[in-house]
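Entry 14. Structure prediction run on the chain below.
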Amino acid sequence: MLKFRDPQSNIQLAEAELTYKEAVNGEKSLTGTIYSNDEVLHQMERGWSVMFNGDWYYITYVAPTDGGNSITVEFDAVHEFFFKMSKSVAYGTLKDGSHTAKEYLDFVFNGSGYSYTLLSQVDAWEKQSFGDKNRLALFNDLINDMEMEFSIADSGRIMITSEIGQDLSTIVRKGFNLQELNLEYNVSDFVTYAKGFGAFIDKDDESKGRYEAEYTSPLASVYGKLEADPITDERYTKTASLQAALKKAVDSSYSISVGISLQELQNAGYDYESPVPGDYILAVDEQLDFNQRIRIISVEEQYNIYGERISSSVEAGSLSATKQKLDGSESNSVVLALSHATEQADNAVKTANGKNTSYSGPNQPQNPREGDMWWYDNGSGTSFMKQYTNGEWVILIDSNTKENIGKAVDSAIETSNTYTDELNEKQAKLTSDLNDKVTNGEAVLKQEIADRESGDSVTLQAGKDFVTSTIKSYDTDMQSQIFQVSNGIMASVSATNLIVDSSFVNTLANWTVAGDVSWKIDTGTMYEGVRVATFNSGDVVFDRKTATLTSAPIYTMSLGGTQFYASFDLYAKSFGASAYFKAEIVQKDSSGSTTKSTPIGGSFDTGMSGWNNYTSDITLDSRTTSLYLQFTQYGGGVVSVSRPYLGSTKLPTGAYMPGASNDNSSTLKLFNNFFEFGIQSNTGALISGINGDSSGLNIAGKKLTVTGDTTFIGKNFMDGALIKNASIGEAQIADVSITNAKIASLDVNKISGNVSNFIQSNWNGKYGSTTIDANGMKVDTNGVNTQFGSSGMKLTMAGESVGGIGVQGLTGKPNTYQGLTFWLDGNAEYMAWGARNSGDTSMNPVIQMSWYRSNSAPTGAYAGFNFDDDVIFNQGINVPGDTNRRIIFATKNFQNYNYPYFGDSQGQAGWAFGGSQTYMISGTTYYNATKVIAALNGIGAAKIPTEINSDGTVKKWVNVTL
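Output returned:
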């Protein structure tokens, strides 16, 4: 079942077949056919959307088809990001010229309702007339300029990087998990040489020419010099970047497109993860002599009406021809390994999780691990698949599977025929019973006429109506009930409004809240004299998150009816993007499963100018044992609710009756072998009162006060006793077993035996993840071991020491010279300090500062310390060597302007810059270095005096070219 939403935000469920496509360029789209729900089939047009995998997709194409006996609707839909960005315009334009990637992206995303993260470094570049278009067109333009890729994270944030996906160890192989592989070779565009022209070397003098570069592929030695059209692009202001672009164009001119159909290994019980767009995998098809590392370009999945994935196809692209040539040795080694494995009949292929191995051949694999798979085939028609489980190979599928399935189908048909015969017998019996009831009904009717004439039946009915009755008070908001059953009489006094503390008298003590931003009670805010519960996400990003406010459960055992009425008041002040609110009465059975859910007023996603009252009729499902009221806010906004009501009395429009501040009610039950009276909870449990049967009498209560002298005859058992004043002369206990004892003060010096072992054994037994020994305390959680010892804390993961935090002295210093050390062990790669984004409590922390070894720095980082956030130096920076001077970063004020300054800590020698000017500082004098260099630039050959005669003539000089 898929969830559809109409333009008024009403939710409808319908059965539909679905095709989902996801691609490297960020594409997320759906096509489908709807088969059920007349409201969806007949009303779907503009403004509808559909929920898939937690995201809304906006429907862009609708095609109803009348098949004669039924109507179906075909539709196309795109992810809400593409729809909303294409329907939103970034008005105005950026100033022509060079801008950073952040400036361009901020211009596109500001006010869009979406945010982004740029994960790769991009140099600034120039664009003309950027703006006054829909945001999606502008965004795609930037993605092309930056030569980047993007994906949509679960949080809705757009992640931009040079290349999405990851390099997996996954292998897909024909005959194992690869059903079909198709190849398309792009031969016509193949080239081995390209030349390019970048920006002018001197913008003011184009006669000096452009930056030039050329690139020749290593394949030119095989196929000759095949020239591509030249590249002319003024964005390239450096020869190196131009040559990189030429290399990319030449190397990608020949490629292979790969189409893959994967078998659904998950349905066979394999722990196999399908690749996603951007991932690199290894594809092997011996019949096509294909064995290459390829990249997933797009994934297309088909789902049936039950939401089950029934097929999966992949479009991929291989490495370029040049890359294949350069990596030939690696590919050959893989082919040799696979060939050798076939000869040994033990060919193992790593599965997607990288832990288990799959084997094929007639010989039993050596040294298998738990979960490994073995496809046995002796070449004579006998074959089966086994899995290594609990130390032995267990058959999963064999050559008799088809025959077994056929037998199972025949058995099912036989069972169906038997069931049909039983139904025919039951129908005959029901027909006979109905005839008997008609005959008996005639006799009953005659007796009823006789009773009416005599008046006996009327009297009995009047007595029954008196015994079974309900009295409700609108003044006290309470109701009294008395009703008779076959073997007794029951009575109760309870609140008319079944919702406990509906007026929030005890704030939220009787309610349950959930969500990163909670519902709250402002005791100073009232509506019609009743407190108000409010959800306000404020500045917290609450997209795609949920906050609920749930009443205490109401149990049906004491309700005495099936028809109820609900109402509440709502003031929805505002909603965030894609946010909405709903209120519903949820019914549960004894196992906790939902039997029925009834909305009160539907769903809301539009702000209101004031309070509104909403009502709904509630009919209990026969399986329901409890029910509750739940308010749910999806996404951000400001929403308030007040005066919730649920009861068997239908109130006038806008009326309200408060519920009790607790869930208790008084009860009286009289049966022939049992009685009970007192106060009970809504679960039916007696809180305070007396009940009894033939086995004895029970008195329940948190506190029991007996004012007179009391005599106990017989044995007395007390789970606990507090004796205010007692004098015990002597007590001798030969043997005592104490299950639970609370001792206010214990003299440990009086304890004999091995006290340390006593404490250690009890602690280690109670807390399995924590142990104490002579070296300190250890905590083991999910493979991470934390040991607290004499010098601090040490961390170990998967058996490998990572590092720790502890107290440490320094060599050459006295023992009293101590400090705190964060240290990294020799086998660990890096240290980092991270932080989640503001308001985020679930995603992985983002690294803000890190330190890497020279051989472990990831792409984009360097050995040593890396700062990924703003840094300020409030003090000077010392430099190595014999000097007491320091370097500082500071602000210098001159020419009535504050300039950033870098230089000597005294501020007497350094550099300052601002706008487009750079200044050299010497003492209190500021030299405009920009103007000096600009004045000297282009002079050409010049003679600079180095020695002058007394008469003013030049004695010596040097020749320079400026």
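Residues 401-454 form the longest helix (54 residues).
Filed with the rest of this week's runs.
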